[in-house]
């Protein structure tokens, strides 16, 4: 029987992790298989960087994955969150190439970059940081065309803030801007939540299916998609937090495994192993939520990591959107 997502599946915004969860018990040697979903993986030859392509092809794949039909590209590297300029430059090359593939094919392109999130909460400030550093050119194209050459496209930037600070639905702000400036495409950047602690701050997901602001922390707002905005919406997200219940669930699994390793015939440990994932995860949430609320965990050095991630993403966008900017121009146009 085809396995599908359930209400107790640990929270994640990554299509890659959803696929892995659905195929947790798959024993086939040639990878995992989900009906209606195509998955490909490549490994960088020079650096420890993995790129995974998840293509949800039809409505069956959409139901199985719980995500819209479209492409989800995931770039992973533990060096992403460290001060490693050489690896960062390679990641920028990979991410910019993937963004470029998803952009509309036009000789003169107008892109609106939208930085989602709360600039006053460090794990959620990635979007505002990136949108504040991309190379904005719309005003130059309109008012000082002689100051910029034809190798640079039109790019606008918007940081709408969060409804808790503005009192306005984020989607309403963006829709109003879109109706006035009429971009060919929106690139939305947001912080996400991951299923695995190893993917926190070390994973970039790019998709062409849009995004729901606040979805990573369970505060889903009006979706940003081609259907709601009237133009294609690309989403770039980095998981900066993990749900506490998910973290405790995984820790308990590791503890049971270790206890059974040292005492394989212990009846109590064996009994714990037989508890279903649904029962275990539900029990953990029932205990934690009344005590801690909807708590999320992030890295202790998140301030420094956000700086690295911001640099990688804004440079990737600049290179993808503006044909006249290449790897040699990295950081040249930062504010």
Ordered list of secondary-structure elements with their pairings:
Elements: H1 15-22, E1 37-43, E2 50-56, H2 59-65, E3 70-76, H3 85-102, E4 110-115, H4 126-131, H5 138-143, E5 154-158, H6 163-166, H7 170-181, E6 185-194, E7 203-207, H8 226-229, E8 233-243, H9 244-262, H10 267-274, H11 277-292, E9 296-297, H12 302-321
Helix pairs in contact: 3-12, 9-10, 9-11
Description:
The protein is α/β, with parallel strands linked by helices and 335 residues long. It has one domain: Rossmann fold (3-Layer(aba) Sandwich), CATH 3.40.50. 38% of the residues lie in helices and 18% in strands. It contains twelve helices and nine strands. Strands 1, 2, 3, 4, 5, 6, 7, 8 and 9 form a nine-stranded mixed sheet that branches. Strand 1 (37-43) and strand 2 (50-56) form a beta hairpin. Helix 9 packs across helix 11. The longest helix has 20 residues, at 302-321. The protein is elongated. The mean pLDDT is 84. It comes from Zhenhengia yiwuensis. It catalyses: Endopeptidase action with P4 Glu or Asp, P1 preferably Glu > Asp, P1' hydrophobic and P2' Ala. Pfam families: Peptidase_A25. GO terms for molecular function: metalloendopeptidase activity. Keywords: Hydrolase, Protease, Zymogen.
């Amino acid at each position: 029987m085809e396995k599908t997502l359930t209400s107790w599946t640990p929270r994640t915004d990554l299509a890659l992790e959803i696929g892995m969860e659905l195929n947790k018990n798959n024993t086939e040697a040639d990878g995992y298989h989900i009906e209606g979903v195509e998955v490909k993986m490549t490994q960088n030859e020079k650096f420890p960087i993995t790129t995974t392509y998840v293509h949800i092809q039809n409505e069956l794949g959409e139901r199985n994955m719980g995500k819209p039909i479209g492409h989800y590209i995931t770039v992973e590297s533990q060096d992403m969150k460290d001060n490693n300029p050489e690896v960062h430059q390679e990641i920028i090359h990979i991410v910019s190439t993937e963004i470029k593939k998803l952009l509309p094919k036009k000789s003169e392109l107008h892109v609106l970059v939208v930085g989602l999130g709360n600039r006053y909460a460090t794990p959620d400030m990635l979007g505002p940081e990136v949108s504040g550093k991309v190379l904005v050119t719309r005003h130059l194209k309109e008012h000082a065309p002689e100051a910029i050459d034809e190798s640079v496209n039109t790019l606008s930037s918007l940081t709408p803030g969060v409804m808790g600070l503005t009192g306005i639905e984020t989607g309403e702000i963006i829709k109003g801007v879109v109706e006035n400036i009429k971009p060919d495409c929106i690139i939305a950047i947001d912080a996400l939540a991951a299923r695995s602690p190893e993917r926190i701050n070390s994973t970039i997901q790019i998709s062409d299916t849009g995004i729901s602001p606040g979805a990573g922390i369970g505060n889903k707002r009006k979706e940003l998609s081609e259907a709601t905005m009237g133009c294609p919406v690309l989403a770039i997200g980095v998981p900066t937090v993990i749900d506490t219940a998910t973290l405790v669930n995984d820790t308990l699994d590791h503890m049971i495994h270790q206890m059974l390793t040292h005492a394989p015939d212990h009846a109590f440990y064996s009994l714990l192993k037989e508890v279903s994932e649904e029962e275990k995860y539900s029990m953990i949430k029932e205990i934690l939520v009344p005590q801690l609320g909807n708590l999320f965990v992030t890295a202790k050095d998140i301030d420094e990591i956000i700086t690295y991630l911001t640099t990688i993403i804004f440079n990737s966008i600049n290179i993808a959107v503006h044909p006249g900017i290449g790897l040699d121009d990295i950081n040249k146009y930062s504010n």
